[in-house]
Amino acid sequence: MQMLTKFETKSSRVKGTAFHPKRPWILASLHNGSVQLWDYRMGTLLDRFEEHEGPVRGISFHPTQELFVSGGDDYKVKVWNYRTRRCIFTLQGHLDYVRTVYFHPEQPWIISASDDQTIRIWNWQSRQCIAVLTGHNHYVMCAQFHPTEDLVVSACLDQTVRVWDISGLRRKSAAGAQPMMSDPLSSQRMNAQGDFFNVTDVVVKFVLEGHTRGVNWATFHPTMPLILSCGDDRQVKIWRMNDSRAWEVDTCRGHYNNVNSALFHPKREFILSDSEDKTIRVWDTTRRTLLQTFRRDQDRFWCLNAHPELNLFAAGHDNGLIVFKLERERPAAAIHQNSLLYVKDSQIRLHDFTSANDAPMVSIRTAPAGQYLPPPRTMSFNPAEKAVLVTSDAEGGSYELYNLPRQFNGQVADSTQARRGAGSCAIWTGRNRFAVLDKGAQQILIKDLSNQTTKTIKPPVTVEAIFNAPGSQILLTTATSVVLFDVQTRQVISEINAAPVKYVAWSADMSTVALLCKHTITLATKQLEQLCQVHETIRIKSAVWDASGVLLYTTLNHVKFALPRGDSGIIRTIDNPVYLVRVQGGDVHCLDREGNVEVIKVDPTEFRFKLALQNRNYEEVVSIIRNSNLVGQSIIAYLQKNGYPEIALHFVRDDTARFELALECGNMDIALETAKAIDKPAYWNKFSQEALRRGHVHMVELAHQRIKAYDKLSFLYSITGNTEKLAKMQKISVMRNDLQSRLQNSLFIGDVEDRVRVLQESGQHALAYLTAKSHGLADEAEAIRAAAGVDEADIVGIEATAPPTLLVPTAPIISSTELDWPQLHVSKGIFDGKFSFGDKGAGPHPGKSRVADLATAAVDGDDTAGAWDIDDGDNMGADEGGAFGSGAAAGHGDEVDLLGDEAEAGAEGGWGSDDDGELDAEIAAEATAAAAAGFVAPQPGISELEAWSRNSPLAVDQIAAGNFEQAMKLLRDQVGIASFDALKPAFLEIYTASRSVLTTAPFASPSRIPLRRNPEDSADTSQHLPAQLYSLSSALEQLQQGYRATTTAKFEDALTLFKRLLLSLIFVSVDTTKDANEVKQLLQICRRYIIGITIELERAAAAKEEPTEDNSTRLVELAAYFTHCELRADHEKLSLRQAMNTAYKHKCFKAAGEFAQRLLELVPTPQIADKARKMVTICDRQSRDTLAINYDARNPFVICAASHSPIYRGEPAVNCPYCQATYKPEHDGQLCQVCTIAKIGAKATGLRSLASAE
Known about the structure:
Blueprint: E1 4-8, E2 14-19, E3 25-30, E4 35-39, E5 44-49, E6 56-61, E7 67-72, E8 76-81, E9 86-92, E10 98-103, E11 109-114, E12 119-123, E13 128-133, E14 140-145, E15 151-156, E16 160-165, H1 167-174, H2 186-189, E17 203-209, E18 215-220, E19 226-231, E20 235-241, E21 246-253, E22 259-264, E23 270-275, E24 279-284, E25 290-295, E26 301-306, E27 313-317, E28 320-325, E29 333-336, E30 339-344, E31 347-352, E32 358-363, E33 378-382, E34 387-392, E35 398-403, E36 419-422, E37 425-428, E38 433-438, E39 443-448, E40 453-457, E41 465-468, E42 473-477, E43 481-486, E44 491-497, E45 503-506, E46 512-516, E47 520-525, E48 530-535, E49 540-545, E50 551-555, E51 558-562, E52 568-573, E53 579-584, E54 587-591, E55 597-601, H3 605-614, H4 618-627, H5 633-641, H6 645-648, H7 655-665, H8 668-678, H9 681-694, H10 697-706, H11 710-719, H12 723-736, H13 739-749, H14 752-761, H15 765-774, H16 778-788, H17 850-855, H18 865-868, H19 885-891, H20 923-932, H21 944-951, H22 955-960, H23 964-975, H24 984-993, E56 995-998, ...
Antiparallel strand pairs: 1-28, 2-3, 3-4, 4-5, 6-7, 7-8, 8-9, 10-11, 11-12, 12-13, 14-15, 15-16, 16-17, 18-19, 19-20, 20-21, 22-23, 23-24, 24-25, 26-27, 27-28, 29-30, 30-31, 31-32, 33-34, 34-35, 35-36, 37-38, 38-39, 39-40, 41-42, 42-43, 43-44, 45-46, 46-47, 47-48, 49-50, 50-51, 51-52, 53-54, ...
C-alpha cells in the first residue's frame, strides 16, 4: 500500500480540514487564526479568511449551500459565504474554546463542541441556538451528526463517548415550534431552571466507557452501526450498537502517542488513524490488524478527514496539510479492435464497443484474509492466444498470466490456472513470448507461454519500465529518456529525451506515439523523432489517438486534444477524472475510477478544423465551415496567428475585429465597409495609410474626405496633378476662412494673386509686398507699400533681377483620372467567396407526389404498339424487320436547342456581376457640409439584388441577383458541375426574366425594375426573392410531353425533352420538403429515360447495319438492357414485347422466355397475354440461347451510361454527382454523357432546391 500524495501545503499548524463535496477545494483552519481555501487539483490558494481571534480548530463545508462554518478559541462560531468572501454572521454562546463544528446533512443545523463541557446545536437560518447538550464533565473534543439517522456522537476528555438521540428535536423542528432560546446568553440567566437544557428534545442514548484516558475523537460508520473512537490512551476502539445497547468490538493498538483522530474508509474495509507519534496508520476493519504505517519525520498529525465522494483523504500536521489517497484508481485495461478488456471487482471483464455488451471472463487473485493486495496496474493482451498479462505492485512487483476462454459460455473462469512471476512490467513482444522487466537485477526476461525463460537481456541503460513498440522492438524508459530497443538484435535503435514516462499511447497504425509524463506529453514518430511537446500545469491522466491522427488526452478536469504539430486545446470539461480507451467520431469511450465504461460526447469540429488547416486540406476546411458552427475568440485568434485572416473574416461579426483582419489580409473592400460602420477618425487614418501603401488612391481620397483632412487632400491632389480638385479645395478654404489652407492651396495651384491677398489679410504686409514684387506684380506691390505708409527709399535688400518668373510646383509626369495603381488580376482563392450552407433538412416525405401520379398514369401501352412498330403477328419466326422501325427512324430528326436559343456571342457583361458604382465625393458637397455644421447624410440601404443574394442560398436566386460567379461555385459544390456551356442560355434567361425595363422619357435611360417572387412581402427585405422562371409545375408539364413523345416512339424528340428537363431542374426552387422530394424524383426519371432512349437509338442504328453474329448479339443485349431502365409501366410493357421478339428472332429462347414471363407479371391485355404465354411454352421446350449475350437477369445490375453494358453488383463503379448516372471506373473524371455538365466521380453535397426550412 502506498500513500500517493496529491497536494501538500506549507503553513502553520493545521487543526482542521474540510473537503468541498463537489469542487476540488479544501479548507484548512490554522493555529494562527487564519482559514485557507485551496484548490488541491491546481495547487493554488484561492482565498484566506481572517476574522477569528486565536487558533481556529473546527471547519466544515455545507453539503449544498455556498457556506462553511468555523469555530475557534475566541468562543465564536462563524458562518461564511465563500462566494461573497465574507462572514455572514457569528453565533455566540460557548464559554470556552470551540473544538469542532459540522453542518447537518439535511436540516439547517450546526453542531459545535466546546471546552465549556457542552455541545450546542444551532439553527443557522434563524441564527439561534436550539439545543444545548450537557452531561460531559470535561472538555468535549468532538461532536458529529450521524449521516442518516437522528443521532449525535461526542468524545470527551472524561474518557467517555456518548451517543445522543435528537429525534425529538427533529420532530419539534418539523412541527414548526419556536426555538427554545432567543438570546444566546440566556443560559447564564436561566441556569437554575430544570428543563432549560430541554432533555425531552435531546437525550443520551448510550455512554461508551472503555478508554483509560481522554477521548479525542469519535465518528460513525457511513453505512454500518459502528462507532470509531480514539484517545490519549493511544488506542483506536471500534464499537457496535443497536436500538437497545452499544458495546466494544475490538481495539487497534500500535500508536505510541496520543491518537488525535480516526475514520472509516468510505469505500474499503479500512480504518485510518493519525497520531502525535507522527504517523498515519491503516487498519483492517474486519480483522483489526495493522496494514500499513506512513511516517513523517518532523510533523505531528492533528486532524484527519475523508472526501465525501472521492477516494481522497486530508491530514493536518505541524507544518501544513497533505491530500493523499491510498491506492491507484486507474483500472488496468487493454484494447483490441472493438473489444475492451479491463479489471473490475477482481475480474477481467470484456466490453464490446459495438453492442455495448459487458461480461466477466476470468476471476483474478484476491488478497488473503488480513492482508492487502494492491490492485492491478497494467494489462497486456495477446489476441492470437487469447492471453492476458496483468501486473501489480504486489510483493515488490509481480505479474500474472491468464488464458481467456476460447468460447464464452457465461461462466467465469477460475484464476487457479494462472501463471505468476516476479517483475515490475510485463508486455507481449510476439505471439508466443512476452518480456518481463526485473527492475532490481536490471534484466529483461523473455518468456514463453509456459512462463519459462527463454532469453535474458541486459539492457544498455538503467530501465524504469518497458512498453510495447512495433515488431520485435520495445520501449525502455529511464529517468531522463526513452529508448527504442530491438529485442532480437539487442541494439538501441533510437533515443529521445523525456521526463519519467508513466504511460505510452500508440496510434492505430503504430506510426506515431505519445509519451505521457506527469505534466508533459511528447509526440514522436515510431523512430522516436520528436514531433512536438505539450505541457500542462496539472496531472495528465490518459491519452488515445483518433482515426485522423489527433491525440485526445485527459487531465484531472478536462478532455483535451493535441495535434502532431503542437497545437492543443480544450474539448470539454469533466467532473471527475476518466481514462480514455477509444475515440470513434464524437464518442469518447473511457473508464472511470469505479471501473465503469462510459461514453462521453464531444464535438470534434475544432481539432478537425485545425488539423485540416495544418494539412492544407482546404476542401475539408470549407466543408467544416459550411456545416459546423465554429465560433469563439480562440478560433479567430488561432486563424490570425497562423496566417489565415481571410478565413477568420467569416467568423467575425464585430466591426472592429473585421476591420483589423481585413487590413491584415488586404481585403480593402471589407476594410472600407467596416470603416464606414465604425466611422471614427483613428480608423479612417489607419485605413488611409494602408490604402495608400497598396495604391488605392480613390480609397485614400474617400478616407481623407470622411475625416475632413483638408491638408492631406490638397497634398494628394497636388502629387497626382488633379488641378481641378485643387481649385475646389481653394474654394473650400475660402468658405472655411482658413488662411493657412488658402496659402497652401495657392502655392500648389500657382495662384500668386491669391497668395498676396492671403498674406495681406493675415497682416504679413512685408511678405505680401515681397511676393508681389518678386513675381512682377508692380501695381499690387505699390498698393501694398502705399497702404503700409512706407517710402520706397526705405525698402532695401531687393535688387533688380532678370524678368520675373512665376513660381509654380512641378506638374506630375503622368496626370490621369484613374488614380489607382494598376493591379495584377489574380483568381480568387478558395476562401474568397462567401460560404453557403447546404440543405440539411431535405428528406423523404410521406404521401404520393405529383411525379408519382404521372409515372403511374393510366396510359394503355398495349394500344401504342403500332407507333413502336412491334410485330405481334402469329408467326413468331417472321423477320423482325427493324424493331421500333420506321416510326423510330421517323423520330430521329434534328436536335432541338436546349433551354432556348443561344445568346449572341458578343453579349458582354451577361456573365459578370452588377456594377457597384463609385462614391461621388465632390469637394463642394464637403464644403457645404462643413458650412452646414451638423448635417449628416443618411446611410444608403441595400439594393434589391443584394437582398436577393443575402436571402437565398440557391444558385438560381444568385443568378437572378447577378452573382454568376457565386452561383457557379454553388453548383460546383452541390452537383459537381464542370462545364457551364449548356447552362449559359439558362443563366441569361433567369437573369433577364427577373427584371422589367420601363422607358421613362425620351433620351433618358430606362429604369430596370426587379421582379419579386413574393410581391406581397414588401415591408420585410429579408423575405424578398426574385421571380421564378423555372417551376415545378412547368417541369411536370415537360415530363408529360416527354412521356407522350416516348409513347409515340418519337425518341429523338423525347430525348431532347428529357435532357432539357434534366438541365432545368437545377434551377427549380420550391418551398416545401415534399416539393423538393418531387424534384429529386423528376431527376431520377429523366436519367432513366435518357439512358433508355439512348440505348434504343443505338439499337435502331445497329439494326440497319449488315447482320453479323456480333451485330446480332449486340441487338439482343441492347433490347435486354432497355427493359431494365425502370420506365413507366406502359413503356416497360412495350420494351419487354420488343425485347421478347428480338431475342426470339435471334434464337435466344431462354432470354425470350424470361422477357415473356416478365411481361405476364405486368398484366397486359388478354390478346398480348396469350401471345406471351405461347412464347413461354415454346421457349421452355428449347431453353437455350444460340448467342453468348452479356446478360444475366438474376444478377442485379445497373447500366453504364457510356458503354451501355451491365455493371453487376459488387463491381466497381463511379457516379455522376448531379444525375447519379452510373459509369465504369475508366470513365472517372470525364463529363457525364447524360447531363453533359457534371464531372463523373466528383465530390458534391447534393442538389439543393429548397429555399428555406418548411
